[in-house]
Amino acid sequence: MREPQPKSIQLKDYAPPPFLIDSIDLEVDIRDDHALVKALLEVRRNPLGDKTVASLALDGDELELVSVSLDESPLEKSRYAVTPEKLTISGVPERFTLGTVTRIIPQKNTRLEGLYATQHGFVTQCEAEGFRRVTWFIDRPDVMARYTTTIRADKSRFPVLLSNGNLLGKGDGWARFEDPFPKPCYLFALVAANLDVLKDEFVSRSGKRKELFLYVEPGKLDQAGWAMDCLKRAMKWDERRFGLELDLDQYKIVAVGDFNSGAMENKGLNIFNTRYVLARADTATDVDYLNIDRVVAHEYFHNWTGDRVTCRDWFQLSLKEGSPIWKSATSTPRRCTRRAPKSSACSTPCSARRNSRPACASTSSATTAGR
């Protein structure tokens, strides 16, 4: 079968979406051979959009629609149409709640977009258009919604359940998170895996305590301390230089070896390839340490420039990436110091000093999550 050809998108054709989504309540139930995704969307007409459009069109990719409802009433099949790429609801009111139940198969997702399996569990990658592989949605960056996410999975296999924002509650085999700030769907993140965790905290300049978590694959906690230090220094630099405090109670980083990108700035839940998180003095070079510092800082700096303030469309990609690139390049020489303490004579060459613990190594507490 011939693969579908990509469609050209022109900047001159941009138009505001006819509808906006204010919030989404998402439940992802990961099972042995598939996942069941329930979504409740609070939808309203966009005052800047085309008012002649009477149908809501949602994006999808390899989704199996199980059911659809409008304002808690099952929708008749004559009211909607499903294609491999679209779910179209006809005759919608000005404001309404749309519910969908969808089946996906992340265990067989080899495109590494949306929700997919890794060696130790499941992770997501939604930039640029991966969220449409999780559930039906208006998958474009100028549609920003508040997310509440519930994850369900087998606790014995996937003890760590994570999503964007702050933890609302958890129990055996489930966890619920709320991200209080509107974000585009490409910043959605979900993790269900068996991971170890390094915990720390950061006191902001306004005196608020922020919980920090760095999750790594089992047996690799001894390589996580430097990345945690880099995160804390980036937070401090952003406060001092721009007055920008972390706007969440919790900040999480996940590092897995088979993540398909270098790193992703998902709001409050960054996902990294281990290359840009793990380092130990007897195996990593100074360049490795510097690259980790820059990438950790870059993704954290996105918290305000790229996450809270984001691009209207993908032609503005350079705008949301430019500020974090500049910040990480400007701040790194002042933040990244692997010198020995001032009290030390420090006459040993840097290559030899790497056999000892860096002066700024983390004092975080390391634990094995779920054990």
Question: Nutshell version of this structure?
Answer:
This protein is α+β, with helices and mostly antiparallel strands.
Which terms summarize this structure?
Zincin-like; globular; alpha+beta; single chain; 371 residues; Immunoglobulin-like
What is the string of SSEs from the N terminus onward?
A: EEEEEEEEEEEEEEEEEHEEEHHHE
The mean pLDDT is 91
Widest β-sheet, arrangement of strands: 5-4-8-2-1-11-14-13
Low-confidence stretches: 339-363
Considering DSSP H and I runs of 4 or more, what fraction of the residues is helical? Answer: 10-25%
By CATH, the topology of the largest domain is Zincin-like
Distance between the termini: 47 Å
* Sheet with the most strands, sense and barrel status: 8 strands, mixed
Number of helices: 4
CATH class of the largest domain: Alpha Beta
Structural class: alpha+beta
Give the overall shape.
Answer: globular
Determine Rg (CA atoms, Å).
Answer: 22 Å
- The total beta strand count reads 21
Structural domains: how many: 2
CATH architectural type of the largest domain? 2-Layer Sandwich
Strand content: 35-45%
Structural notes for this entry:
The chain is of the alpha+beta class and 371 residues long. The protein folds into two domains: 19-119 and 139-189, Immunoglobulin-like (Sandwich), CATH 2.60.40.1730; 196-339 and 352-367, Zincin-like (2-Layer Sandwich). Helix content is 15%, strand content 35%. It has four helices and 21 strands. The chain has helices at 225-242, 286-301, 317-335, 350-353, and strands at residues 19-30, 35-45, 56-59, 64-70, 73-74, 80-82, 86-89, 95-104, 114-118, 121-125, 144-152, 160-163, 166-171, 174-184, 190-193, 196-203, 209-216, 250-256, 263-264, 269-273, 365-367. The strands form four sheets. An eight-stranded mixed beta sheet has the order 5-4-8-2-1-11-14-13, with no helix packed on it. A six-stranded mixed beta sheet has the order 19-20-18-17-16-21, with helices on one face. A four-stranded antiparallel beta sheet has the order 9-10-15-12, with no helix packed on it. Strand 6 (80-82) and strand 7 (86-89) form a beta hairpin. Helix 1 (225-242) crosses helix 2 (286-301) and helix 2 crosses helix 3 (317-335). The radius of gyration is 22 Å and the shape is globular. Mean pLDDT is 91; it is low at 339-363.
